[in-house]
Amino acid sequence: GETVNLIVNEGAFRTVYGSPVAEIEKGEMHWLVSYGYERDMILGNYVIKDLVSHWDGPIDLIIDIEIIADPDDPNKVLINDMLGSETPIEAIFNGDFATLTIPGGQLLSAGTLSPDYIVEVWNGYVADGTATGFIEPDGTIRMNGIGFYLYDLEGEAVDWWDLFPNPTWTPVPDDTKINSLPAVLDISNIQKRAADKLIIR
């Protein structure tokens, strides 16, 4: 997943006929070194556990999600069941750079999880809220920050539900369900954690 630029002196390369190649200056030629991952490698069930809250440290919470192919875009996937949401969120798969990118600002349908709040997926460590994860060869995804910001039903900002610096998404068999989410979103631990959605680590 790297783009390599080379500077080559005249004559350092030769053609198949033995003729010297002219000088190659920086920016004239580059190669992409790809991981070569296919989207299918990250499709399936995942658990997000061993979570560490930005404010509270390690917490006893396990989240089940399912990643499926976006039927309309070969470069995207849909993430089901995030915090019990009935509405999926979109993510961009990049097999060359081994990344999964979740654009910030997507809303979860809280429903039975929290009928009194609107839940926004937001990475508080970057200005645009984008959450990016690195995909390992076994399909494990190591996110570089992801969180959930609450609004009331009028659209007014409430506060962070929680923010996780480096959660790991681990692939599990299809029949694995160990979700430990509460029936209703617990906001008892919210005590004006942060007025701003941009958090300094």
Alpha-carbon Rg, integer: 21 Å
Strand content: 35-45%
Query: What structural class is derived from the secondary structure elements?
Result: mainly beta
Order of helix and strand elements from N to C terminus? EEEEEEEEEEEEEEEE
- Could you tell me the number of beta strands? 16
**Average pLDDT rating:** 84
> Uncertain spans, ≥5 residues at pLDDT below 50?
none
Characterize the biggest β-sheet.
8 strands, antiparallel, barrel
Task: List the SSEs and their pairings.
Layout: E1 2-5, E2 30-33, E3 44-49, E4 52-53, E5 57-58, E6 63-69, E7 76-80, E8 89-94, E9 99-102, E10 106-108, E11 117-121, E12 131-135, E13 141-143, E14 146-152, E15 157-164, E16 168-172
Q: Could you walk me through the main structural features you see in this protein, from its secondary elements to its overall organization?
A:
The protein is mostly beta strands. It contains no helices and 16 strands. It has strands spanning 2-5, 30-33, 44-49, 52-53, 57-58, 63-69, 76-80, 89-94, 99-102, 106-108, 117-121, 131-135, 141-143, 146-152, 157-164, 168-172. The strands form 4 sheets. The protein has an 8-stranded antiparallel barrel with strand order 3-6-7-8-9-12-13-16. A 4-stranded antiparallel β-sheet has the order 10-11-14-15, with no helix packed on it. It has a two-stranded antiparallel ribbon with strand order 1-2. A hairpin with an 8-residue loop joins β7 and β8. The radius of gyration is 21 Å and the shape is elongated. The model has no long low-confidence stretch (mean pLDDT 84).
